[in-house]
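Entry 14. Ran structure prediction on the chain below.
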Amino acid sequence: MTAYKNFKDLAGHEVEGQDYRIRIDLRDPRILIMAPHGGRIEPSTEMIAEAIAGADYSFYSFEGLKANGNGVLHIESHLFDEPRALQAVGKAEVVITLHGQIEQKDGFVMIGGLHDNLRLRIKQHLEGVGFETRLPTEGLMGMDPQNICNRGKSKQGVQLEVSRRTRDLLSIDKDYLEIFANAVRKAIQIYLQRRD
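Output, structure tokens:
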């Protein structure tokens, strides 16, 4: 079975709490950290998003819970229309989404999205603490205005594609995860200070 094209289609076939769950915690309305393909869809993305959000920024995750076949729950980012997500995105100035890139050999983060300023700051801070960043490949650039990361009030966001190798390391090393999350949080803090 191919992936669902929208949430209505998904909700008609899958059971919330059994096949998927949604977690949401609204805090600072300026920044929303999202994992639209969390749980067993793109493993560890919700953990990374939650670490970045911390106790300060709003957090949303859509997580696959199925024993297998979670790929069907992957609604593409430009089609992602889960109502609670859209409500949270509508309140946020900037949305940062976490995704799982499939590369297992190399550890890196691809940084896309329409928010040039914040994208560059995140790149600089991640590289500053030793993470490799790369330009997104075709299909992972996050440049579509309908991409969920670009649908906040500013109409520009950031999409982080984290390689499988890096996600695996972040999931087993909490200190490494803290370094990653703090680098992104520092970039966000500087961005917010400069715009205020």
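DSSP finds six helices and seven strands in the chain. Will compare against last week's run tomorrow.
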